[in-house]
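Hey, I'm writing a tutorial for new members on how sequence and structure tokens pair up, and I'd like a real worked example in the thread rather than a made-up one. If someone can provide the structure for the chain below, I'll link this post from the tutorial.
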Amino acid sequence: MATSNNTLGVDNTFRKKFDREEYLERAREREKQEAEGRGKSKGPPVQRKPLKHRDYEVDLESRLGKTQVVTPVAPLSQQAGYYCSVCECVVKDSANYLDHINGKKHQRALGMSMRVERASLQQVQERFEQLKKRKAPGSFSEQDLDERIMKQQEEEEERRRQRRERKKEKKRERAAEEEPEIDPDVAAMMGFGGFRSSKK
């Protein structure tokens, strides 16, 4: 029985051999494509308006304390929570809703960037003038402030006095309720009325 050391069809080389030149060439091509991609712009950058003041009141209290039936087939605007019609999403509580409407995604959907327009000296002075004019009709001096403080203190004193009187009245009512009403003849028979000192 003769055995042969040459077995045909078996590959003893299980380790993969890498061609360094081929992989270096692939890396160079990839770097070239990335450099070309960085050099090319996809189009003109989108110009967004700077942030502006909100011209509407944020309604957080309209649903406060109300019960609502929630169904899985209801449209987004009728689901529980706060609905944003710009982004078409529902936020579950008021804090997250405020974060959302002040956030980057919502502001971009409105066409605004997160940058604030820099105000000039002239704009600041005009704003101060507007605020002075608005304040002028209802303005008050320190004397008015002192009068308001005195009035508030007097009102507080009056409230305290009334509270004390109510407490005293309640005390009297409780004492009257607790004191049992006994017929004087029965009390004399039982000996409750004879503790007074008698004068001779």
